[in-house]
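Tip: read the tokens left to right.
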């Protein structure tokens, strides 16, 4: 699996398709946290919201790097389409971990905040929750499922909007609401950890759906 992830990560680097979502993430976090001297919970909420959008974009780009013929070669060499899809998920998670590091650090370059270990843990949980959810959306809306990317883009926008506004149904909406209203990070660590588990479940479901559809198409 490590060579497969290394291959997909390198291919993404060489394609430079990572540039737009990464620059968008850095720009959003910088703008949203500029001159912010308040609690880090709300600040990391802004970073988590940016992560949702950018992780979706990164995953769609990652899953669509290869055309059908090239992907067939990769599937044969990797030992099956399931392994290739798992490699895509792991590579997307790796990209999101790099973005999470930026999301944790940028607020200290653009504002002044008191820092505790609970802040860093909460920020990591929040961003990974949105990252896992965004990767799930990106897989379902990728070229592996949709031949027409116009339809995929429309569905991605609808799903992202629903995740942001669906109260009580979306881990993202619940997460962002709690981060805005609760200034003490220690009070949110357990509940945010639970939302992270829910987001991981959504990622597993999205990957399973993508595998079923892509296998039937091939």
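Filled-in amino acids:
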């Amino acid at each position: 699996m490590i060579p497969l992830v290394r291959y997909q990560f390198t291919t993404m680097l060489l394609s430079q398709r990572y540039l737009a979502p990464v620059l968008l993430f850095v720009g959003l976090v910088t703008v949203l946290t500029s001159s912010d001297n308040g609690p880090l919970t709300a600040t990391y909420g802004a970073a988590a919201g940016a992560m949702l959008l950018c992780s979706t974009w990164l995953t769609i780009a990652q899953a669509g790097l290869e055309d059908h013929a090239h992907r067939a070669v990769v599937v044969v060499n990797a030992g099956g389409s399931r392994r290739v899809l798992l490699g895509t998920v792991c590579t997307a998670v790796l990209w999101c971990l790099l973005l999470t590091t930026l999301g944790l650090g940028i607020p200290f370059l653009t504002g002044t905040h008191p820092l505790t270990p609970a802040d860093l843990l909460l920020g990591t949980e929040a961003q990974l929750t949105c990252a896992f959810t965004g990767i799930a959306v990106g897989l379902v809306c990728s070229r592996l499922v949709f031949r027409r990317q116009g339809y995929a883009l429309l569905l991605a926008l609808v799903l992202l909007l629903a995740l942001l506004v669906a109260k009580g149904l979306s881990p993202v909406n619940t997460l962002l609401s709690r981060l805005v209203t609760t200034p003490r990070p220690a009070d949110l660590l357990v509940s945010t950890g639970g939302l992270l588990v829910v987001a991981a479940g959504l990622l597993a479901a999205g990957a399973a759906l993508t595998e079923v559809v892509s296998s039937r198409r091939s």
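Residues 81-110 form the longest helix (30 residues). The radius of gyration is 17 Å.
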